[in-house]
Design goal:
The protein has 317 residues and is an alpha/beta fold. The chain has eleven helices and eleven strands.
Length: 317
Amino acid sequence: MKALHQPASWRARTHFIAIISALLVVASACGSSATETEATSSPQTSTLRIGAIPDQEPERLQRTYGLLADYLESELPDTTVEYVPVTDYQATINAFRVGDLDVVWFGGLTGVQARLEVDGANAIAQRDIDESFTSVFIANTSAGIEPIADVAGLEALAGHSFTFGSESSTSGRLMPQSFMNKAGLDIESSFEGEVGFSGSHDATIEVVSAGTFQTGALNSQVWDDRVTEGVVDTSKVVEIFRTPTYFDYHWIAQPSLDESFGGGFEAKFINSLTSLDADNPDHADILELFGAGSFITTSNENYAAIEAVGRDVGLIR
């Protein structure tokens, strides 16, 4: 069969269409590659999840971190800030360890424990009061314990029932226990019955006030605030000793913060905290709820002493 002869103009047109089609395929591939590269280099997350150890009543925590979340959203463009409540101190550490929380307000001990769980995590900010923090020992007035002048005087607690706050609390367990050890007290044998763990600073005030335990120890800031608020019945429970100072609460950030939210995000977060100004009415409520005059920067090195005490009393291994 004789082959059909195709006109030169038809063959040229077909060749032109083939070239155009090939160019479109290449352009499409290049466009896809550019899009994928852009997506890879852009932040993958827009919701910043903040958390905190549950050291106070849930309602107070919700108000504190709810206001803070609103403020941070106004300071961090294109970022939603979500406060994620947790059930106990260890749950907070666990949530940070697995990446369910991006930035967390820890106590001194829990902050060290969290950093040991997450390589590269950093202490980034604390309140102005946290570089010279204290605990208070309190007693039910029926115990008849006089004010104590120094650490050695804590021996007066011997033979009385005693409660800490949370088992992992710096100001409600770790540091009080370290000072009690210096006074020669043994939590296994020096007290009436087993020592208790109330779960929070507010709960410690309640159980000592009620006489469930004759003595206890807690965060001095919480104690001072509750006394000022008039919710402590000082005819039933009184402060008997205030400890020497130590570093305590601080914010810990995931090492991947900039990778997740964009370069420089950690610095922006820190700047948002340190920009809180007590003279600004919009900031004053937040600082008051934190019991702070301001937030300042901090570093891991400031908590070396806390880590040493934690290891000494067996809370860090």
